[in-house]
Amino acid sequence: MLSYFLRRVAIAIPTILLISIFVFALQKLLPGDPLLVLAGEERDPEVLEFLREKYRLNDPIPVQYITWVGNALQGDLGTSFRTNQPVTELIGQKLPVTIQLAVMSLIFAVLIGIPAGILSAYKKGTLTDYIANIVALSGLSIPNFWLGIMLILLVSVKWQLLPASGYVPLSEDFWLSIKTMLMPAFVLGTALAATLMRHTRSAMLGVLTSDYVRTARAKGLSERKVVLKHAFRNALTPIVTLTALLFGELIAGAVLTEQIFTIPGFGKLVVDAVFNRDYAVVQGIVLVTAVGFIIMNLLADMAYFLLNPRLRSA
Amino acid sequence: MKSLTLTTAALALMATGAMAQDLRIALQSDADILDPDQSRTFVGRIVYASLCDKLVDITPDLEIIPQLATEWTVAEDGMSIDMTVREGVVFHDGTAFNAQAVADNIERSQTLEESRRKSELSSITSVDVTGDYTLTLNLSAPDATVMAQLADRAGMMISPTAAAETGVDFGLAPVCSGPFSFGERVAQDRIVLNKFDDYWNADAINFDSVTFLPIPDTTVRLANLQSGDIHILERLAPTDLAQAEADPDINVVSAVSLGYQGVTFNTGNGEKADNPFGNDKRLRQAFSYAMDRNAINQVVFEGAYAPGNQSFPPTSPWYNTNFPIEERDVEKAKALLAEAGYPDGVDLTVQVPNTTIPLQLMQVVQSMAAEAGIRVEIVSKEFATLLADQSAGDYQASQIGWSGRVDPDGNIHQFVTTDGGINDSGFSHPDVDAALNAARTQADMEARKIEYDKARAVLIDEAPLVYLYHQSWITALDAGIEGFTPYPDGMIRLEGVSLSE
Fold first, then answer.
1. Which of A86, B441, B474, B499 would suit a FRET pair with B8, their CA atoms being 20 to 30 Å apart?
2. Under an 8 A CB cutoff, do A262 and B217 touch?
3. How many CB atoms within 10 Å of residue B392?
C-alpha cells in the first residue's frame, strides 16, 4: 500500500508541472495587456514601462516561466499586480473560506444525495422513485445563480433569517460563520446532491439485483440490513470515486456561488484575477487547486482499501 | 482628581457605548492598492474619503474649499501658489502634519517610480517650505488645474514617517490623517476603518468604525440593504431604482456625475483609422444625428441618468450652451450619408465590453443607427481585450466611458489633443490643441470658458467622440441615515452623517 501511495505521488509531480505550463501559456495567449488594466483610467507610459520591467513582463515567456518555477519552489508565488499582496498570503486567506464552503456543500450533497439515491433504487418504479428523480433533475437543471438569488430574496430579504451575503471567519464567530455559509452551501450542495443521487441510484440498482443480495434475503436478514449493510457497502466504491471527482465540480461551482453570495474565496479570487490579468494570482490558485485535486483523488484511492477488503492484499 | 478622571472615562465609555456604531458601506467592486500615489480605482477613492484627508475638498457645486490647506493665493503671474496649512493636525501614527509633510508628499507623488500622480502634478517644479505651516508651490507655467488635482488623490496627505518606512508597500497598511484610520483588509471581503480620535474635525464624525464591503452583483447589493446587513450602497443600478424607491426603509439620492459615456471613432490611431467613419466627419455627424439621447436614457437607464452631447454634463458650468443636445434627425443623418457617398447605407463595427449594460446600450444605438442607414455590427469583447485593442488602434469605433474629474481639463485635454495620453481616437486638430492648451493656463474662469467653447465648436463638427449620456451616482441609504449629501464626484463623505436605528 505504501509503495502504491508513493508511486501515485511520483506520478502527480509531472502532472502538476504540465498543468502549470499549460495555464501559464494559456494566460499569455489571452488577449489584453495586464498593465493597461492595471493602469485604470490613467495611463502614464513611463510608469507602465517601469512596471513592465519590475514584473519582468518584457522577458521572453519561457524565461518568465522558469523564473516563476524557481520562485515557486522556494515558496514564493509572486505578488498580485492589483493589491501588491503576496500570492501566498492571498491564498492563505482564501483557502479556508473555500474549504469551509466545499465541506459544508459536500455534507449537504451527501446527506441529501445518498439517502435519496438508496431510497429511489429500493423503491424503483414507485411514486417515491419518480419524485426523487424529479427533485434530482431539478437540482441539476436549476442554475446556481438563480437559486442563489431567489434564496437571498426569500430567506434574507423577506424572512430576514440569514445574512444575505458575505463571510465571517469560523474563528471569529462560529455560529454566525455557519449561518452565513448555510445558503451558499445549500445552493452548491443541491447541484452535487443531484449527481450523487443519480449515481447512487444506478449503483444500488446493479447491486440490489445481484445474487448475494438474494441470498442475504433468503437467509432471512432484515431488509434494513440487506440494503444498508450488504448492498450499499458494495455500491459504495463507485460512489466514493464520484465524490472525489465531484471535488472538481465543487471548485467550479464555488466560482459561481462565491460570486453570487460575495464570499471572498478561491472562486472569486480567480475570476477577478483572470479579468484583471493578475497572472501571478491565477497561476498560484491553479497550482493549489491542482494539488488539491490530486490529493482528493489519492484520498479516494486510499478509501477503496478501507472499503474493500479484497484490495488490501493486492 | 482620580475619581474625576474615572468619571470622565466612564462618561466617555457610555457615550461611545450609546453610539458604538459600525457603518457598513457596499461597494461595486474591491479597491486596489490603498496607496493614494499608486491607486487607480474609483472605489479606492471612496475608501480614501474616510481614510485620507486632502489639501482641499470640493462642494457639491464643485467649488474648491479648505480641508488641510486653510488658505491659498495664486501669484499675479500665475507662476506660484502660496499656501497655509491647518495647525494641530496629526497623522494616524502620531506624526505631526505641517508644511514639510506637504512638501514630502508632493515629492513622493512626483518621484515614486510606481506613482500614478506624476502627470497630475507635473506643473509643480518645486515646493518651498516658508514656515511651519506655510509653503509655496512653484509652477513651470500658470496652471489652472493644480488646485483641483489637490482635491483628489494627488492632494491626499500620507504620513511621511510611514511612507519612509514602508515605501512601495505603504498601501498594505496606509497611514493618513483622515477621520478614520486603517483597521484591517481582507481582499475582496472587507476593508475596516476605525474612528481616529485625534482627528481635527472629530466632532463631525458619528461612527466608531466603517466597513467597506465589495458586493459586485447589483441585485445582491440591494438585497443586503433591504435585509439591513448594510447601510449605504453606492451605484444602485437604474433597473433597481423602482424597487428601491418603493421600499419605505430605503432612501435614494443621486447626483449627475462629472464623467461621460459615448462612442469614440478611430480617426487617426494606426491603419484601422483608414475607414469611412475615420476619414469622413459627415458619417460621424450622421451617427450623432441618428441618436435619440433622451430615448436611450429612458430605455436603458429608466430615465435615471442625464442625456449629453459634450464632455461636461449640461449641468456643468463648462457646458457650451451654444450646442444643446441635438434633437434626433434621421433625415439629416441620411442626407449626410448620401452627401458622403453612401446613399445605400454604410457599415460600422463598434466594440463593446461584454457586460449587460453596455450591450443593452449598444443594441439600442444599433437600432437607432439602422434607421439612418448605418448598419452597426456589435463586437463584444472582454474588457481587458477591448482596452488593449482600443489603445493600440485596432478598432473602428469603441464604446467608452470616463468617470470624470473636478477640473474640466481632466475630461477633455488628454482625449483630444494631439499628444494627449489617452487619445485613443488619434484625433488631431491644431485649433483644439491651441484652445485646450490655452485653457490650462487661464486662471480666470470666464477666459477659460471661452477657450473650452472654441474647442467644443470644432469637436462638435469633427465628432471624434460622440457623447451619449452622463451617468448619475445613485446612492441608496438605510432610512436611518441622516445628513448624507450626494456629490458629483460620487464620493461618500461621512462628516455630519449619522445613523438612527
1. B499
2. yes
3. 14
